[in-house]
Amino acid sequence: MRGVPSGVDEADRLDREQAKHVLRRALSMMQPYRRNLRISIALIATYTSCILAGPYLVRWAIDSSITPAAEALRAGEAVPTDAVRILNTAIALYVVIAIVHYIAQRTAIVTLARVGESFLRDLRLRVFAHLQRLSMPYYDREKAGVIVSRMTSDVDAMQELVQMGLLHFVSAIMLLFIALIWLTFVSWQLMLVCAIAIPFVVIASIKFQRDSNRAYLTVRDRIGNTLSHLQEGIAGVRVIQAYGRQDLEAQRFASGNQELYVAHMESVKVQAWYIPVIEFAGYFTTAIALGVGGWMVTEDMLTIGAVAFFVLTLSNLFEPIQQLSQLFNQLQSSGAALQKLFQLLDTDIDVNERPGAIDLPKHSTIEVEDVMFRYSPDGETVLDGVQLTIAPGERLALVGPTGAGKSTLAKLVARLYDPVGGTIRMGGVDLRDATLESLRREIVVVPQEGFLFHGTVRDNVRLARPEATDSEVLAALESLGVRERFEAFSEGLDTEVNERGSRLSAGEKQLVSLARAALVDPSVLVLDEATSSLDPGTEALVERAMERLMEGRTVIVIAHRLSTSERAHRVGVVTEGTLLELGTHDELVASGGHYAALYATWVGGLGR
Amino acid sequence: MWERIKIQRWGIALGVLIGMCWTVGKVAVPWVVGRGVDQGIEATPPDVDAIRFWALMVLVAGGTSAIFAGARRYQAFREARRTEAALRDQVYAHIQRLHFAYHDRTQAGQLMSRGNTDLQQVQQVVVMIPITISNALTVSAVTVLLILIDPILTLFALGSLPLVNILGKKFSTNLFPNVMRIQEESAQLASVVDETVQGIRVVKGFGAEPAQSGRLRTEADDVYEAAMDASKVRSIYLPAIELMPNVGLILVLAYGGHQVLNGNLTIGTLLSFNLYVVLLIQPLRMLGMIIAQAQRAAAAGARVSEVLSTAPRIVDAPHPTPLPSAGPHLGEVVFENVGFAYADGTRVLDGLDLRIEPGESVALVGPTGSGKSTIARLIPRFYDVQEGQILLDGVDVQKAPLAELRRSVGIVFEETFLFSDTIAANIAFADPNAPQGQIERAARLAGAHDFIEELPQGYLTEIGERGFSLSGGQRQRIAIARAILADPRVLILDDATSSVDPTKEHEIRDALGEVMRGRTTVVIAHRPATIALADRVVLLGQGRIVAEGTHEDLLRTSAAYREVLAAIEEAGELPEETHL
Q1: Which end of chain A is more exposed for a tag (fewer CB within 10 A), N or C?
Q2: Which of B115, B197, B482 faces A148 most closely, judged by CB atoms?
Q3: Where in the sequence is the domain holding B20, given as residue range(s)?
Q4: CB contact at 8 A, B25 and B75
């Protein structure tokens, strides 16, 4: 929801050490832009000084020109020529300052934005690259939603800061700082008296910052609830109507919505006492400048111009304080977001490329030697003592119950995971010593469902090789005998596949997935056969395409249909983490083991 | 929309009144300071009592301004949030009442923004009503006061300030599309991330990491460009807006300073003019922004009104005929010469005649688009037929009271939708007060009881987005239990076993057999075993009945039926889990 105020959870709030660390690391990421960063800080300092220089010129004009002139008039003398000259100089200087202010501010906005946005872009690219390098165990462990939120809500929190807050934050702090120095310089005595207001402002701001943070968190929470309720009410409207629950649902929604209203009002209440306190502090110091300052003038301790300087400067000072306390929330939540992102960047990559890795040889024997695997160090052993040799061009079907380890074995061969014990070699090269690039080129995993990405059919076929030419894409489709199928689409290969491919049938998605593999042209294919059935028309086409894709390649197929295992050169039965049976279909059926029993029930089920 | 504001007119008026008090205090301060300087400090001889008096007056005026500033904010937001909340309630309640056909053609995202961002826009403008009125009042009060003091100096002091207003409006107008663009580009970037994470197995399986990085870079560059464009708009307008008061201050010093030198103006007045220029910046800037904001809010308000003014099509007849409530043989469904086409013009049913006896179970079979699901959706009157009529126990469904009809017809949708709530609440959807025993009975019948018991909190397990995630088959069984709990006289199962793991299908099948006993049931099924459960099979093709009879009869007599079944059987699967 737009305009959600930022707040930071107590648990996410950074302590001093963490904040330092995050800041240092962020600054080191900004190294390439440090020149621009320095320039923008200098520019901000320049224009905040200009804000204060105006009142100072007024002071100068009053004390050096107007007051002497007024005294001269009062004494019945002519206005000194000096007075007119000084006034005109002050005016001219003011014009110069206004122009400098304009230019400095304008340049500062763009320069600082460039630094901030470049930083964010780098951060996005780095986090994304790291996300992709993170190996499968990480994705098994973390929820997809949480991973995605790192790249969305966490980075967006900072985007908001860079867009709106950062410049205000830096300039407000500088303004306060420079103003305090300047006021002290003009009259430290008067400044000291005005300083009575400081503790009140500080205490009120700290309290406000805490209260508003808490209020914003509640608001954010309830906005989330209301929105998900709204979304659910829209998505589930058919069910709600089918059960005649419209009124009840509307009542339930209204009560959540009322809670959101209350939360909003709580956060307004916090502002409604804070704003008067700060505003009053401003008027209080103005009254002191006038009262105490005025008295000091009568005692000749101060000039009238200095009083004017105080009054005018103080009128500029208290709005930035209000802004600062609001921005502080934003800054804290950005810090917390950054901390999470840095933690993500620090997550180890398990499946990594070793220094001095070599390319995998094409079309060679795969040896699985005494492989043991578990998904987490303290988890169950999924595979144990698996021994297997697959000849080049051989087709091996793996069957077995869900969770017995057949998919895991296939994934290990593709090095989506590294075995905990034992080795897997291809052409004598341990997969862990191979370059990732050659690994992904030689061994391709085609998953069960044809998962499509946003874009055209062509883009999807080119997934792994975006540089592939149109004719290469066509050749890949042709080799599977499905070119016509896609060219028959109204926009041919340029047909948008929509979100998650809703316009293509399950079979067509599968075909795209197969074409992807054909385009990569690997020597080893790992196929996970679909469990759900396809529409009869495409089913045959997919079968044929798959058959063609497998030609001349080493294939490991996770079979869900016995017809697939029937056609394989050899069948491996995986149960309870071991390779229980291995042999040709006929051998296994003849041996009367698990596979034979399975086959018997299947044949029976089909009524053959 | 306007009715809402009318209801809240007194609250808004109170806000305006508070705003006026704020104006008085705010405008008084610079004047008081000026008096203090002239009558106290600059008096000859200086008058310490006057200085003390006017300093105290600064506190009084300032205190007034400060207190009412807080009160103004509170009251303004109170009214605005009330409007927002009330309209959101209305939008939600109305969405719930709108007919299926409306939801078919309206994207969920669209309705989401009606209830979310659009109402935000409206809220932001309602906040601004009292604030804008008091701001405008402040601007006019200051102008009048200054003219009374010195008309020419007023011209110099305030002459450049209308530009603040104009620049404020332009700034808001120009920034807005850029801010929207940042959001759009960020959303596109998010979808690349989302896809990559969801499809990480595909990405890794095909080694597509570099390609995905390339796509992300493109999106990140787009976000960068959009953000930089927004910053450029800021860099053009923000400094210019700040420049305008400086122009005023310079002119005050230039003209006013010389006037003081000539003895025509006092230092105190000069100082007050300076303070007034500073004071007016904020109100003028906001006045400029509100114009742009109001334009957007008007568009947002119109979109909300459009939803609220759409009349629900499926409503109770003026004089509804109650369904017969007692009798041994309830649940008779008759289609008489029914013709139906969806809003996009696709004609689905054409002169359909179908009679389903009370307690009979009928399986509807046919290729995609043959009208099976439509028949299912017409019985509970999710849509109205264009020709003919549908009778439930002798009453035209269009004449039956809607609530009663929907209670009498239970439907399990093809796509299971469960709510983010406990399992018990999901099953007891039709009757939130149903006792636990009834819920468990329904769950048992649907074959869901056993797995529910095994969940961490049993029936009180939260499911949905933030809760426990269930498998497709488990979800479907809960949906079936939900339909059973309502104890409808007609039960419609739209492809209710489609997402069930084939190895678990038999469990559902057993459950279904139990549920269907003695109850009128319409099953839309793709699996032969489920079809076989029904007393009678109706084969549909192109909106008409092609053949009907028992499963065995049709197997024997209808070639079309055999064809459809063969297509299904082709995809015979390996029943691995049950046997290994």
Answers
A1: C
A2: B197
A3: 1-148+293-312
A4: no
